[in-house]
Specification:
Helices cover 50% and strands 14% of the residues. The protein is built from 13 helices and 8 strands. The chain has a 5-stranded antiparallel sheet, with helices on both faces. A 3-stranded antiparallel sheet has the order 6-7-8. A hairpin with a 6-residue loop joins strand 6 and strand 7. The protein starts with a strand and ends with a helix.
Length: 342
C-alpha cells in the first residue's frame, strides 16, 4: 500500500473531484454531508472558520493497494481511519471515498485540519509522515508492500487475508470492549459485525478455560489477537469497566443529592439556576443551533457565556458561593486593618 498527499488548499476543489468522479463511492462521512459535493465543502469550510487564520486546512490523501489485493469496503474504512489516527488527524471532520476507475483498489480521504474544537492540526511533514504511516499499516494489516515486484502466490494471498481478518477483529473488539462489562454483552455487540465467540472447555467439565473469535472462515484464539483478549484478560477488563460504571453512578447520585439539598436556598429560588442551566446544557446548545449557518458561533458563544454566569453563582461544595469572600476571610481582613491602625 502506498500513500500520496495532495496539497490542494481548497475544500471545494477537493470535494468536487472526489465526489463527482465516475463511480465514486462514499464509504464514510463524519461531520459533513455526503450526498452533495458543494454542501460537503460548505460543512468543511464552516468548521475552518473556527480558526480563520488557517487558510490551507484541507487534507487530501490517497491510499492505493496492490493490484492483487481486493479489500472490501469495511477494511478500507478501517485502514483509512487508522491512517488518520497515526497522522494525528483526530477529533475532526473527514470523509472516505472509494474510486473504481483504476485496476487497483484505492481511496481518497478529505479531512479538516481545524478540529472540532477550533484547534489547528499540524501538517508539518505530513506527506512524509503519511508514507511512513502507510508502510507501518502495510505490515500491521499484512498488505503487499509497494516495492514488491515478485509474483504473489496463492498461499501468500491467503496469509495476507488471514492477517487482515485478524486485525479487523482486533479493531472491533477494541472499539466495543469499554462499553461491555460481561462476555454476554460483548457477544451481543460483536454479532451484528459478523464476529462470533467460541469457548474452550476444560476436559470433562463445563468450566470455560479459553476463548476464540471467528469471522468468516477464520478463527483466532483471543490471546493471538491481543494478549488482553484472552479469557482471563477479558474478565480483568470487565471488572475495570464495571468499577468505572459504579463510580460514575455513585458520583451522579451524589451530585443529584447535593443539588436537591440546595434547591431551597434563597439564591436558587431567586434566579432559578437549575432551569437556566438545563436550558443551556450541551445537548440543548446543539439542538437549538440546528444546521450550520452564519449565527452558529454567536449562538454557542452566548450559551457558554450564560453557563459561566450561572456557574459562578452556584453554591460551592462547602456551602459558600463562588466570587464571594467567606466570613473567615472577612474577619482576618478586619483584624489586619485594625492592627495596621494601631
Amino acid at each position: 500500500m502506498i500513500s500520496k498527499y495532495i496539497s490542494s488548499g481548497s475544500f471545494k476543489r477537493s470535494c468536487n473531484y472526489v465526489l463527482n468522479k465516475k463511480e465514486a463511492e462514499v464509504l464514510c462521512a463524519v461531520g459533513v454531508r455526503s450526498h452533495d459535493a458543494n454542501l460537503m465543502a460548505i460543512d468543511f469550510e464552516m468548521q475552518r472558520l473556527l480558526h480563520a487564520s488557517k487558510n490551507n486546512a484541507c487534507f487530501h490523501g490517497i491510499l492505493s493497494f496492490h493490484p492483487n489485493e481486493k479489500p472490501d469496503n469495511a477494511l478500507m474504512v478501517l485502514i483509512a481511519q487508522t491512517y488518520l489516527n497515526n497522522l494525528g488527524v483526530e477529533n475532526t471532520q473527514y470523509t472516505i471515498v472509494r474510486h473504481h476507475d483504476k485496476n487497483h483498489a484505492h481511496l481518497h480521504i478529505i479531512a479538516n485540519l481545524v478540529n472540532n474544537e477550533g484547534t489547528v492540526i499540524s501538517d508539518k511533514w505530513i506527506g512524509l509522515r503519511g508514507k511512513k504511516a502507510a508502510q507501518a499499516l502495510t505490515l500491521k494489516f499484512g498488505l503487499i508492500s509497494a516495492g514488491e515486484k515478485k509474483k504473489i502466490g496463492s498461499n501468500q494471498i491467503s496469509l495476507n487475508k488471514m492477517e487482515l481478518v485478524r486485525n479487523e477483529i482486533r479493531y472491533t473488539i477494541t472499539n466495543e470492549i469499554l462499553q461491555c462489562s460481561s462476555l454476554a454483552r460483548l457477544e451481543k455487540a460483536l454479532l451484528p459485525q459478523g464476529i462470533h465467540m467460541q469457548f474452550k472447555y476444560r476436559r470433562g467439565t463445563q468450566q470455560i478455560e479459553g476463548i476464540s473469535f471467528r469471522k468468516g472462515e477464520y478463527s483466532f484464539k483471543g490471546s493471538s489477537i491481543d494478549r488482553r483478549f484472552s479469557y482471563n484478560g477479558l474478565h480483568k477488563i470487565f471488572r475495570v469497566v464495571e468499577l468505572k460504571t459504579k463510580i460514575k453512578d455513585s458520583s451522579t447520585q451524589n451530585n443529584r443529592s447535593k443539588y436537591s439539598q440546595n434547591a431551597d436556598s434563597p439564591l436558587a429560588s431567586k434566579d432559578n439556576h437549575a432551569s437556566r442551566f438545563d436550558k443551556y446544557s450541551d445537548s440543548a446548545i446543539y439542538q437549538n443551533t440546528g444546521d450550520l449557518n452564519s449565527n452558529t458561533l454567536e449562538n454557542v458563544h452566548a450559551a457558554l457565556a450564560e453557563i459561566w454566569k450561572v456557574a459562578i453563582s452556584l453554591p460551592a461544595e462547602d456551602g459558600n458561593y463562588f466570587g464571594h469572600i467567606t466570613e473567615d476571610k472577612k474577619k482576618k481582613k478586619r483584624n489586619r486593618d485594625n492592627s495596621m491602625r494601631m
